[in-house]
Amino acid sequence: MIARLVRSLLLILWITQPFLHAQNPHPSVPWTLDHLNLEGYYKHALLNGGPGVGVPPTSHFEALGLTYESIDPRDCASQREAYRNLFIGSDIDKNGMLFYPDGTNRFALMVVGGAASENNLNDDCSNLSTGTWGGGGGDFSTFLSMTENALNQSGGDHFKNFLARGGAYSGFCAGSSIMARFGLNITGYAEIPVKNAHDWRFDRIGDTLTPYLGDRTQFSDICTVGGGKLPYPNVPAGAEVLFEGTSNSEEWGRQFGAMVWSWEDDEPGYGRMVVSGAHPEDAADGFAVTAAMYSHALDGAGERPIKSEALQNGVVRVMDRETEDFEPEYTKIGDKQIHQFTFEVTDDRDRFLLLELVGARRQNGGEAYDFRLYLNKNRPALPSDHQYTGTGSLSDKTIYLENLDSLPGGTWYVGVALMTSVELEENLWGDLYYIGPTEVLNGIAYELTATWRDRPIQVCEERISNLAVGSELVENTANTITWDSTCLDTDARVTIDLQATGGARLRTLASDISAVAGRFNWNTDQAPGSYRLRVTANHDVTVQATSEVFTIVAPEPLIRVIGKGSMVNGTLYVDDCKYGSNCQSTLILSNTGTAFSLVGATVVDAAGNPGNVFRMTSPNQTNPWAMPFPAQLFLDLGARGSATLQLTYSGGSHSGASYLELQSTRGTLEYQRINLCVNCR
């Protein structure tokens, strides 16, 4: 008999679903879940369709106002691996998507549908192989039992822990059977198989679902595709029958039994399971039944834990432990999670309270994580229910009170929330994975301090101020940028950006500079113009300062030219040159630098050709003329040295347009041009 029952159950778990009843849209239900506290979850419901198992329709969750996430991979090797990484655990999410880093539930409700019918795909998920069938609840149950993460937790352990930590669970057909003895053995009882039928009538038992269904007690046209029922009327311990079912199909005759039931363990804080061996979720007349099942499951969810170790006066609470440390009281916070703390103020003289939250600094791109801080008296502090909320930067928040109400026996609750989150993405092959700041899946560290006293408490606000650099800087020279920082951690880092005068970012000068050092040496490698500087804290972009407008100017020439003749504004005037005579002018070249420089001097005409009417000599010349150009020579100038250059004009009364070009080789090659003007004044 036992062996026969096992074979029947396995058939149920593996059986395909040939078709499901069409579902009519139902935009609403005549009740709400407003009485439930469903804040502090990543999303309300996880629609869990693992390998071989489908997910239920989403319309019930929309009608109930519940957010949901659906994972329904097709059955090929890469998607099994993607599901394993998501649900059971991977390096980027060590204990899987069902739990936060501290082990609390990331979803309020988990729902598993019936066995899926589909063709197998190739390992690369690219092509269907015809005529084959894969999947089923038994496959899913085996996968969950045999697959573990790095913390030695299996998928089956996740199902058990989810309920044990107060989670609500619902399932249909295979989603019910996997919880029984021959699946994951969470409930300990065995289901009794039922036959395929499409005319089941459900009759409500008792008043448990009256808050949802009112006077409605009977629902019809519900199908079974395999599936099971609860032993009845002698139900297992912890179970409560919610609907009896009756079917009178021509093929199988009359069937009767408990078709919808709830189950709970007697352990404190345990959640509630509400399941059915049939498929009311896919029946038009079963819409309200399914919504009521979800609602009743959520009504039985356990309370989310409050950190048992209260905050101590003035003591920093460091929340930086990893999941694998198994220290939930000090473990990092996950995405959209709310950590709850308490503290007691027993002395009526302590009227002043300072609550400080310092969130971890984000390494990627210098962005800040979005932390929130809430304070409440005598009940948990939540986004929708708090007396005070923290203010400050994106990741750092403070609450300061000067009239603290210290009623005897009163308890203050502190809520810390992390709003930075991820999104679920599906690639072309159907593999599911999280994108965005995935580091939040393993948690983000923060520090929390509550200080209460009988006198005012100094509140320290993070600031960067007095950002300054010289008002006029010379291009390619060394300059020092300075700023002041207030209340920043010693390990805080800043980014320095160059801006246009209107505030548009032009470029980043440095991205990982100590904030508290307050200085940065900058070689002004920027074209001449007007600019501003901005210094921004990497951990919080709202902590920043902008400088006054400053200018960058071109450097003075390295070789200074002094004309003994008529030298005016860069033009050497050669006057009174008579036809057939030579006119001579003398220039003094001075090296303004502190190192040797080689200077080349060339006379060029307006077309850029070597000049033919000027020649040059110098008593200081140490290099030969560079033939065939008569008007070219080289001078060696020592540090801050000088040399004499003589230009002799031997042309007619008018030379045309020519100029003297000086080329210095010190540092980068530098050009200077001196116009030569013969008899033009």
Report what the structure shows.
The chain is mainly β and 681 residues long. The protein has four domains: 2-299, Rossmann fold (3-Layer(aba) Sandwich), CATH 3.40.50.880; 317-453, Sandwich (Jelly Rolls), CATH 2.60.120; 466-553, Immunoglobulin-like, CATH 2.60.40.1930; 559-678, Immunoglobulins (Immunoglobulin-like, Sandwich), CATH 2.60.40.10. It is 11% helix and 37% strand. The protein is built from eight helices and 41 strands. The protein has a nine-stranded mixed beta sheet with strand order 2-1-3-4-11-10-9-6-7. Strands 24, 26, 27, 29, 30 and 31 form a six-stranded mixed beta sheet that branches. The protein has a six-stranded mixed beta sheet with strand order 33-34-41-40-36-38, with no helix packed on it. The model is unreliable at 1-26, 119-123 and 128-135 (pLDDT under 50).
Question: Which features would summarize this protein structure in a list?
Answer:
681 residues, mainly beta, Rossmann fold, Jelly Rolls, Immunoglobulin-like, 9-stranded mixed sheet, elongated, disordered N terminus
What percentage of amino acids are in beta strands? 35-45%
- As for the number of domains, it is 4
At the first level of CATH, the class of the largest domain is: Alpha Beta
The rough form would be described as: elongated
Give the strand tally. 41
Uncertain parts:
1-26, 119-123, 128-135
Work out the radius of gyration: 40 Å
Q: What is the makeup of the main sheet?
A: 9 strands, mixed
Q: Output the strand order for the largest sheet.
A: 2-1-3-4-11-10-9-6-7
